[in-house]
Design a protein that fits this description.
alpha/beta; Rossmann fold; disordered C terminus; 5-stranded parallel beta sheet; ABC transporter transmembrane region fold; single chain; about 625 residues; about 70% helix; 4-stranded antiparallel beta sheet
């Protein structure tokens, strides 16, 4: 994963080349600093040189120190810019993948986890690029350069450094393997916390209405405690690993110092060479020590990058539902034909829908019926191009009879011809008018007002600013604003997923009348319907069924779907019968019913008085029984 971040993370290659060059420059300056410092000390203590004689050397030493500071600053600057460019590139690619996969991504992956990945997760890459990568470059360059320089002047010190330096990477690998599980658990705990918090915030009004808010607060507290515990465990490992690496580096430098001191005392080594070895030896261990310390700072970013690349690989490997063709849709659509479309649902051993076929022409309203889970919404996703069918196809028929497969059409051009109302229309925290104009940015105020009036929301101010996810409106109002948005769009194809769910009878009639008006205008209307009113308004209904793919699949086909369709037909007949019965009731019958109701209430009142009397008698008996015992 780190190799992929360094080579395929986006635009990191050029910046990494600059980082390597700066690392080499810093290594050269560190060697020059050690030699100049050793020369100044040896000349002052052994040769008795004064300031005048050492002024040039001291000036060079000051320049080297200033150069090291500049190189360090430039390295951090380059690393930060690399991080910013890679994050921007990954964010753009993730958003493109999310949009290409459409609603199927939301169905398979928590939107809160995706939002966490794109924001907090990718921001954690700053620790990887700004701190870990510079030390990674230095750790690869500095120890080799130090050993080569020491070998030129002191072979024993070079051999000591060469034998002890590999101990630090060995322990880093052992610690990294131990901390990998903690890192993954911490990232997973953070994802669960984000998902739970988003769900609680979205459903808070419902939880408050049913008195379950406190229970969810307790659940959030448990998830937060789990995340806190995993974070503390990760920090504990980070501190222990830093201590181990510091201990190894200290012991290694001490071994070099002991060898240099013994040979200085024996006269086998000059003071200038010994000082050079002592000053330069710690530089060989410093990048590795810092690399081990920054490894934990980069872990969260690496874990987030793993999820990001997994999502990108999934989007690239899957035949994307929104794969864009090259053909343009016909200017006019003579028919929309669904031919034997089946979709194997992920993580479910079923096809839903299974072999769905229907043809809809302009001016028609066709209702898709069937039991829940039969694949009605999935079928709309296939028409939109968001879901790739396992078999079958969706065809657009031109007026001249030419048939074009939706998969071969340009995705943006095809979506521009469709107005789609999902089960839960998205409402942005802007005004009602701006939410309606999401489908048609150039819509006039009169068009917006007309769409609102058509769906029965003429009393809702168009300039009213909504809260997050449309808070401030009821569920039915949010759904009707979604329908109004589709009406303003004026598209030749109108796809509605249960547009009247949660509406009362009057609001349902208004919405269905607006849908019928769109069909009369020449639109192709395909709607998912469960309610009898919506099915009665349709010109015809098409039952969508599912089919099991596992053992006994032959028994799991259309029987339940047919039963569901029959039940829906019975419901329509029952509703019509009830409406006819109410229409035939006259005022005399209603008056008789009222008088019968009053009589029943009077009887109930007398019964209640008798019960009260019995209760009083029982209380008196109990009081009399308690008296003698007292």
């Amino acid at each position: 994963m780190q190799r992929r971040l360094l080579t395929k993370g986006g635009t990191a290659a050029g910046g990494l080349a600059v980082a390597v060059a700066l690392g080499l420059a810093g290594t050269g300056l560190a060697i020059a600093q050690a030699w100049l410092l050793a020369h100044v000390i040896a000349s002052a203590f052994l040769g008795g040189a004064g300031i005048d004689a050492l002024v040039l050397t001291l000036a060079l030493l000051a320049i080297v120190l200033l150069g090291r500071a500049c190189v360090s600053w430039a390295s951090e600057l380059v690393a930060v810019r690399i991080s910013a460019r890679v994050k921007a590139d990954l964010r753009a690619r993730l958003m493109a993948a999310a949009v290409a996969q459409g609603p199927r991504l939301a169905a398979e992956r928590s939107s809160a986890r995706t939002a966490l990945l794109v924001t907090r997760g990718l921001d954690a890459l700053d620790g990887f690029y700004a701190r870990y990568v510079p030390q990674l470059v230095l750790a690869a360059v500095v120890p080799v350069a130090v050993v080569v320089c020491l070998a030129a002047v002191d072979l024993v010190a070079a051999l000591t450094v060469a034998l002890t330096v590999p101990l630090i990477p060995v322990f880093m690998v052992l610690i990294g393997r131990m901390s990998a599980s903690h890192r993954d658990r911490r990232w997973a705990a953070l994802g669960r916390l984000a998902h739970r918090f988003a769900d609680v915030v979205a459903g808070l009004p419902t939880l408050r209405a049913f008195g379950r808010a406190e229970a969810q607060v307790a659940a959030l507290r448990r998830v937060t405690d789990a995340y806190r515990a995993s974070t503390i465990a990760t920090l504990r490992i980070a501190f222990l690993s830093a201590m181990v690496l510091e201990l190894l580096a200290t012991i290694s430098v001490a071994m070099v110092a002991v060898g240099v001191g013994l040979r200085l005392q024996a006269g086998d080594l000059g003071l200038e060479v010994g000082l050079f070895a002592l000053v330069l030896a710690p530089e060989a261990y410093l990048p590795l020590r810092r690399l081990g310390a920054e490894f934990h700072a980069a872990e969260e970013g690496v874990a987030a990058a793993r999820d990001a690349f997994a999502l990108l690989d999934e989007a690239a490997g899957r035949d994307p539902a929104g794969a864009s063709g090259t053909l343009e849709p016909p200017p006019r659509i003579a028919a929309l034909r669904i031919e034997g479309v089946s979709v194997v649902q992920p993580r479910r051993d079923v096809e839903a829908p299974a072999g769905a076929s229907v043809e809809v022409r302009p001016g028609e309203v066709v209702a898709l019926t069937g039991p829940s889970g039969a694949g009605k919404s999935t079928l709309l996703g296939v028409v939109l191009g968001f879901v790739a069918p396992t078999c079958g196809r969706v065809v657009v028929v031109a007026p001249d009879g030419t048939s074009l497969d939706v998969a071969a059409l340009d995705a943006d051009a095809w979506l521009a011809r469709i107005a789609w109302v999902p089960q839960t229309p998205y409402l942005a925290p802007v005004s009602v008018a701006d939410n309606i104009r999401l489908g048609a940015p150039d819509a006039s105020e009169a068009q917006v007002a007309g769409a609102l009036a058509a769906v029965g929301l003429g009393d809702v101010p168009a300039d009213r600013v909504l809260g997050e996810r449309g808070s401030g409106l009821s569920g039915g109002q949010r759904r009707r604003i979604g329908v109004a948005r589709s009406l303003v769009r004026g598209a030749p194809v109108l796809l509605l997923d249960e547009p009247t769910a949660g509406l009362d009878a009057e609001a349902e009639r208004e919405v269905l009348a607006a849908v019928r008006a769109e069909a009369d205008r020449g639109a192709i209307v395909l709607l998912v319907a469960h309610r009898p009113g919506a099915m009665a308004e349709a010109d015809r209904t098409v039952a969508v069924c599912w089919r099991g793919l596992g053992p006994g699949a032959d028994d799991d086909t259309g029987a339940e779907a047919d039963t569901g369709a029959e039940a829906e037909a019975d419901a329509i007949e029952l509703t019509n019968a009830c409406e006819a019965g109410l229409a035939e009731a006259d005022e005399a019958e209603l008056a008789d019913a009222g008088r019968a109701g009053e009589a029943e209430l009077a009887d109930a009142g007398r019964a209640a008085e008798a019960v009260d009397a019995a209760v009083l008698a029982a209380q008196a008996a109990v009081s009399g029984a308690r008296g003698p015992r007292a």
